[in-house]
Design a protein that fits this description.
elongated; 434 Repressor (Amino-terminal Domain); 110 residues; mainly alpha
Length: 110
């Protein structure tokens, strides 16, 4: 991740307030969170829960959507490995196998 984990919430709070145009006091009132707590979130003195961030975003008329991080380099590497495996499998000589004979699962006695 490009952001330090401790600064993500701080940056998100600033973005929410900037986009909404609300003062800190107004956003606190609308979200039902104490102004001092909202201030602590914005200044990085406290870390809000995901539920608190979602509540603050909703109060500003926004939605907080969480999506899994995508590791593009890992996917690209996996694709290259898969291509190599397929290439190796295709280069193997084809030899048809004899039909498989399975032993009976049970033996019936008369």
């Amino acid at each position: 991740m490009s952001h330090d984990i401790d600064t993500v919430a701080t940056g998100l709070m600033a973005q929410i307030r900037r986009s909404s145009g609300f003062s800190q006091a107004e956003l606190a009132r609308r979200s039902g969170i104490a102004s001092s707590v909202l201030s602590a979130y914005e200044h990085g003195r406290r870390q809000p829960s995901v539920a608190a961030l979602a509540r603050i975003a909703a109060a500003a008329g926004m939605a907080l959507d969480l999506v899994p991080a995508r590791n593009a380099s890992g996917e690209e590497h996996a694709g290259r490995v898969l291509a190599q495996v397929i290439e190796l499998a295709e280069s193997l000589p084809y030899r048809p196998k004899d039909e498989l004979a399975y032993p009976p699962l049970i033996q019936l006695r008369s």
